[in-house]
Amino acid sequence: MDVLLSAHFLAIEADILVVFGILFIAFVLFTLEPIPIDMAAIGIVVVLVVLEPWTQVTPELGISGFSNPATLTVLAMFVLSEGIQRTGAIRILGDRLLALTGDDERKQQAATIGLAGGTAGFINNTPVVAMLIPMVSDLADRTNTSPSKLLIPLSYAAMLGGMLTLIGTSPNLLASDISGRLIGRSFSMFEFTQLGVLVLATGAIYLLTIGHRLIPERVSPDDELAGQFQLRGYVSEVTIPANSRFVDDTVGEISIQLGRDVEILRVLRRGKVVHRDLENRTIRPNDRLLFRSSGRTLLDLTTSRDLEFAAAPVTEASDVTDADELALVEVILVPEPPIAGESMTAREFERQFGSPILAIHRQGERLKQRLSTAVLRGGDTLLVQSTKEAREQFMADPNFVLAQEIERPEYRRSKIPIAVSIVALVVSVAALDILPIVITALAGMAGMVITGCVKPEEVYTAVEWNVIFLLAGVIPLGISMEETGAAEYLAYQITPLADVVPLLVFLMVFYLLTTIITEIITNLASVALMLPIAVDVATELGSDPFSFVLIVTFAASTSLMTPIGYQTNLMVYGRGGYEFTDFIRVGVPLQLLLAVVTSVGIYVFWGV
């Protein structure tokens, strides 16, 4: 009998050693990234299944990550986010945020943290991040700020803000239920709000000071389409209509609202050029602005109701019968073409080809005269609104090179109330615990398509599939940790530590252990696994079990050290161009700080 028991325990130990070995390999692959980490995660699944006798991961469990609620929730959230973005609602919110922050990176971070953290307390933090990712990316884009500097703070703030109330994050609800069953004490709506405020404030201060220095600029503002249309310095001319929101604003105020990559060069008023003391010059109706900007911003401005391009859009011309033939194109005037000697102006170009020039890019020189009177030169790049017939002319004319057709953003503004209502319903139904968030999110995704907020073909481009494969790939590793008892083994290894360190220090260690386990398995699984252990440990030590319940709840809901620890981290991972180690560098110091703050807070508010 003793021999059998010994063999049994040796088998268990072998299982645990195998899982720890796979975990170590996974960590090395994720950290060094010799191959994309989503592919590494899929490889880990294969290894787990091949080693099933030790890992307890069957083929069915191996692929279960693709149907896991966390994976499907993240997938649906990408589509919900796309629906909000396509309607232009994010653009409107971004305009208001831009007016508050300007191009100050610290102010942008502070606004992002405040908005995400405050909102996540009353709306589940996953849809909060889904909704704010497009807004934050757009804000970064318009102000030449690296999105990398804003997206980690967005995810972290939403996580920490989720601890303000019971409904802020799903693990809180699960922890409340388990706590009620184990110790007869569930959470009220604002049970731990005072601790949540302390945690959020700590995280915000860290992110705005130390974290700001540690977050890398992985995506340069100019990286995405360097050398392409979007990054060329175009000069354009617009009129300020009488009903424009820019009327009575100064040039400096307008520059802040339009973004850092817009430089107003001249104001044209009643045939006169105004260029002195531009910053303080007040804009009047029908003034014309000559400005220089990136092509990306220029495209956005073509849809603005507050600006009218001096060149009349082709869509307003009476001789155009098929609006579908219209397109924005880049036309390059070849060096030293015959027409250059003819001194063709932009106005004459429009007359000849029936295509107004909205902007001109001239290498090495800044245009300062009215666009319509500018003489075209070889090497100029023109942003032209043209018909299909005109484009055929450009292709046949040796003087021109038709570089590319540009897609102008077309927001479905009439769908804004629908898209916002869908997201509100998704959040409300999940918050009231009528249906799980995975079901409401999938229903919301279908609703976005059915109502036309997102077109069917846009669904697949909205999803960041590398994130989905990464999440689906690491979930079976967590299952193996649970099935083999590896996670429980880790938890009980620290219990003897309570005999040699103060109880408050032990609470900090238990917090860190829970966060480490949460990085490997899902936060919900971590809560389900660690809460019973926490109650047993507290009982054995003669401590208050509720304090240990709280430490597990906070630790499992604020997993900051890797992109795979929490789904909001995965949602910003690709958008910010991050590497796996970026979360370690930024998240580990904050996690250690929160271990102290959370433990001390529990000690002060509830005792141990």
From TrEMBL:
It is a multi-pass membrane protein. It is found in: Membrane. One of its GO terms (cellular component) is plasma membrane. The keyword Membrane applies. Residues 222-307, 315-400 form the RCK C-terminal domain. GO terms for molecular function: monoatomic cation transmembrane transporter activity. InterPro entries: Cit_transptr-like_dom, DASS-Related_Transporters, RCK_C, RCK_C_sf. It holds the Pfam family CitMHS. Keywords: Membrane, Repeat, Transmembrane, Transmembrane helix, Transport. GO terms for biological process: potassium ion transport. The chain crosses the membrane at residues 6-30, 150-169, 189-208, 418-439, 459-479, 491-514, 520-539, 546-566, 586-606. This is TrkA domain-containing protein.
